[in-house]
Amino acid sequence: MILHQELLERFRAGKVPALARAISIVEDEREGFQDLLHAVLQREPSTCRIGFTGPPGAGKSTLVAAAATQYRAQEEHIGIVAVDPTSPYSGGALLGDRIRMNDLTLDPGIFIRSMATRGSLGGLATTTKEVVDLMDAFGFDRVLAETVGVGQTELEITAAADTVIVVLVPESGDAIQAMKAGLMEIADIFVVNKADRPGSDRVVKDLRQALHLRAGGVGKNMPAHHGVDLSRLVRQERSQDAPSSEGAGWEIPVLSTVAQNGTGVEELLTSIEAHREWLASSGALHVRRRARARGRVEDVVDRELRRVARRSGVMGANLDPHLDLIQAGEGTPYSVAREILKGLLR
Ligand SMILES: Nc1nc2c(ncn2[C@@H]2O[C@H](COP(=O)(O)OP(=O)(O)OP(=O)(O)O)[C@@H](O)[C@H]2O)c(=O)[nH]1
Ligand SMILES: [Mg+2]
């Protein structure tokens, strides 16, 4: 705690380098990172968290950059988190983001951070959410988070947002695909980007129809892609306390944009504001924040349990005699795990 006291003061004073350092500490789970988070999160959340997700190359970064530019014109301070699901070593998409968001990085009113999920289970997704929490606590007017909607970790991160925008393109297939990928469950607003390309009207129409059918109860429990319900985590995190968006008077809009030249971006921002108002007036914002708090507690407990197991050393060389038993047919992974857990929880 003493370790980060000075950092904490500079963070609270709104110094951007302090935010950058705090993010690094959280990202690397360096000593004292939980105390740091604990200290800065003791305030009422006020930031508008907007998530952008969708298939690779849909134009999310371009759209985020366009939105950020408009918000800047209103003198708002903006934080941007771009989450890259690929390996941190390939770096391709991150580099692309950097180029597309280059103009923005010169603006001191905008803070951009790219991070990789590294495809690992649990841990890093939690860290990513914690980075969004940090940005929130820093006091930006809005935090825009971009994730690629391709897997569980990436969808789960959308639960960190108040408003989730799902970005599709004419090429990304029909509404059924979106439904299968679990995107229907998480969208508060649909955007069909690259409306300058053929087939865009068709996708807009399909989506509207699918949403209409869904509102009528058709396809609500449709099993997702490969039988894995990618959206379940998000839904759980949200709806344990809350009905999903469309259940409570929010009609999910389907917009079309050409992010490259800014067409439709104004309408998108209007929809985001409308959703914000709906969140506040319907009580959904409170409910979502509560669900988020629940999810975060679960995340931290999971992480700490894993940590306790790792620290105890039982998963390392000490496991060898147990493995001998399993190989000799005198034990199973279950009997061994049970014994280990008994020891840990004693
Ligand atoms: N034709 C057309 N191209 C666009 C539009 N918006 C973005 N692009 C282009 O599409 C490509 C991908 O855009 P990005 O903004 O990087 O897409 P992304 O979804 O962030 O991509 P990843 O982060 O890699 O998943 C870029 O070459 C953009 O210039 C659009 O409205 N129309
Ligand atoms: Mg991008």
Textual characterization of the structure:
The protein has 346 residues and is an alpha/beta fold. The protein folds into three domains: 1-38; 43-282, P-loop containing nucleotide triphosphate hydrolases (Rossmann fold), CATH 3.40.50.300; 313-345, no CATH class. It contains 16 helices and seven strands. Bound molecules: guanosine-5'-triphosphate and magnesium ion (MG). Residues 60-61, 82, 93, 97, 146 line the site of magnesium ion (MG).
Keywords:
346 residues, alpha/beta, Rossmann fold, 3 domains, seven-stranded parallel sheet, 16 helices, 7 strands, globular, binds guanosine-5'-triphosphate, binds magnesium ion
**What are the bound molecules?**
guanosine-5'-triphosphate, magnesium ion
Task: Report the average pLDDT across residues.
Answer: 81
What is the succession of H and E elements?
HHHEHEHHEHEHEHHEHHEHHHH
The total beta strand count reads 7
